Amino acid sequence: MLKKMIAKLVLFGLLVCGSQAVLQVSISLNKVELSVGESKFFTCTVIGEPVSLTWYSPQGEPIVSTQRVVLHTEGVRSRLTIYNAIVEDAGIYRCQAKDAKGQSQEATVVLEIYQKLTFRSVQTPQEFRQSEDAEVVCDVISSPVPAVSWFYKNKEILSEPNNRFQVLPNNNLQIMRVGKSDEGEYRCEARVEARGEIDFRNIAVVVNVPPVLSVPQQSFNATADAEESVTFTCITSGSPDPEVTWHRKGQQIESSDQHVLGSLEGGRSMLTVRSVGKGDGGPYTCRATNKAGVLESQLVLKVFVQPHITQLRNVTAVEGSAALISCSAEGEPLPEVSWRRGSDGQSFSDGDKSADGRVEARGRNGKSMLTINGVRLTDLGRFDCEAHSRIGEHQKSMYLDIEYAPKFQNNHTIFYSWEGNPVNISCEVMSNPPATILWRRERYTISSEPTANTRVHSGPGRSQLEVTPMSERDFGRYNCTARNNIGARYQEFILAQADVPSNPYSVRLTAVAQRIATVAFMTPDSHGGVPIGHYVVNYKESSNQQWRSAKSHGVQSTVMLSSLEPNTTYVVRVAAVNGKGQGEYSHTETFQTLPIREPSPPTVHGQRGVGKAYRLGLIKQDDGGMPIVEYIVKYKPDKDDQWMTKLVPGVHEFALLQPLQWNTRYSVEITARNIKGLSEPTYFQFLMPQKPDITADSLFSSLGLGTVVGLGVAALLLLLVLVDVSCFFLRQCGLLMCLTRRLCSRKSATSAKGKELEEGKAAYLKLPLKEENGKEVLKPDTIEIKVRGENSHHTNAGDSKA
């Protein structure tokens, strides 16, 4: 540097000394290094008398001032300023000076532009999808070209074969099959050795993991309109945490009263469908979304709908035709439809037929048709349509109405009567729709208006013709005609003259005792056209001419005769009685009553009595023809040999044995006696119970309900009296006090004069009161006791003032 300065001074001296006409041009700097973006100026100085100073660019073109490149010339000096240098500004700049002779001199300066380390488009964090080949971008420039190194966890990443980490020629870092474990902060470091320049950037690498979705349960079942709820669950994972949405029929489900969205820890997302209905069935989609992708899974809700019968109507058919009954049902799954006949409960499913082949059921897909061929009246009634599936059933009923021509219900077509006796000829008709009924006789219609011997009584399904025969011509045939829109029918009745019944036969005695006998007989062959009302049995002693009569109960063919004499021969005969009168008697039958004998052994039954007593029930038996006078009852404990005897009148129905011993077995011998003698004995045994404990419960249990209630009321009244007396003496109140005052006031009113005379003789006794310290003092309101002749009144100060 010193040498250069000396050379310049020598050159300057020589020029000064040699000639003043030669121009000398110099620039303040010969060589300059400038980084991109910096600014610099250069000064060109001329010695001499230049007529022009011009700067030339590295391209050899004169420089003209611009906003970034500015020239400023003053006399022999010219300054070139370059603002915000760019790489294209590099090169040799010349400053040329010319004199008046046109001679020129110039000086040059070398401008070198270099790029400082500059990081461009370096973003952090940089995100990648798991398992893809990631390229971490680090765009750094400089001049000269920088050397770039990468560091991870404070260790330099070296590009080695088979290494997942490689530094690319463009200085980016490539990570093959990037994984979650590769996440972290990486350092991109750039160096320019020539200048010792270094810079770096920390870049966060984030690895996004695509959503992973699992469904614990994919299919759900629910019943519609049963207030059921179903909750779908999706379990998701991923990085970042996926956002879960629910979709149905291409639309996202928003939270509402029916659809409730929720989430729990562990990536659980739920969708609850409340009050599941028929329209809620079908697929639902759970969709998980994050930066790394989208994944979805489908869940299916199968809604079971209870079977419901939608179409069933009543049907009307004509007897003999075909009836078609249709039933339709819906549900999920589609229900099977069957039929049940209400009259006998028989069921008909698809393809079933009745035993006679007239009834057949056909159907599928929730529909069924029940066909009844040759409809009969027995088909009339309720038919149940039953729709059933595995989740429930539904039943509805219809009514099959059958229209038919009139049908006569009574087979009784012959009626009997006699002159002057009215008879009702009944015509009962069953028809649908109801029929009109007319009576005819010999081609003439009998008027519904009453006549001398006919009267018509009509009601629903019934018409009654009342005929009072006046002569023989009123007997004969009568016609009942019934008609509706289905058809007409008629029935003929015969009114015949009645007669008395024929005689009963085969009269016999089925039971004979001392005083009673039972007569049995066969009913007459003919009742005379009029029902038999009863039977009359005549009987008498064989030696007597006077008949006695007994009447049967209704039409019973047995009659009991009573109050007979023992050991006596009787004659008996039987006749039947109807509305016309009494018929002939049967042949007579003779029987003899039994002689008097001892009674049969009595029958007894035991019943525990009260306390130390035992009750023996006596059941009446055959008394041998004479009343039982008494029962002889003998009894004794099994451990004793001595019998005790009790006589019970024959009219009694029981014998009471007492007193007896507790916990002892007794033997009993009972004999019945009438005037003829003694019966065979009847033997009986019984066991007395253990001696009971006498407690309050047993005491009250022995008392009746009325007694217990009476005792309770008496105790309550006694308590009230005690309370009233206590109030009278302690507080001078109560019912007793009120009565006393009333009595005293009446007495004082009647003896006022006597009181005035006696008051002069009264002595006053004042009772001292005690203070708190125990001393006795007298107070104005001291209680006074007025002593009178006969009566004493207790008063206080308040009373005396009054």
Number of domains: 7
Structural category is mainly beta
Shape: elongated
Question: What is the gyration radius calculated from CA atoms?
Answer: 70 Å
Oligomer: single chain
> What CATH first level of the largest domain would be assigned?
Mainly Beta
The proportion of residues forming helix, as a percent range, comes to under 10%
Overall mean pLDDT stands at 85
What name is given to the CATH topology of the largest domain? Immunoglobulin-like
Q: Quickly count the helices.
A: 6
β-strand percent reads over 45%
Q: Total number of β-strand segments? A: 63
GO cellular component, one term: neuron projection
Subcellular location: Cell membrane
Pfam families: fn3, I-set, Ig_3
Protein name: Neural cell adhesion molecule 2
What does it look like?
- By secondary structure, the protein is mainly β.
- Helices cover 10% and strands 49% of the residues.
- A hairpin with a 5-residue loop joins strand 15 (165-167) and strand 16.
- It has six helices and 63 strands.
- The chain is elongated and about 210 Å long.
- Strands 10, 13, 14, 17, 18, 20, 23 and 24 form an eight-stranded mixed sheet that branches.
- It has seven domains: 24-115, Immunoglobulin-like (Sandwich), CATH 2.60.40; 120-209, Sandwich (Immunoglobulin-like), CATH 2.60.40.10; 215-304, Sandwich (Immunoglobulin-like); 313-404, Immunoglobulins (Immunoglobulin-like); 409-497, Sandwich (Immunoglobulin-like); 505-592, Sandwich (Immunoglobulin-like), CATH 2.60.40.10; 603-687, Sandwich (Immunoglobulin-like).
- It starts with a helix and ends with a helix.
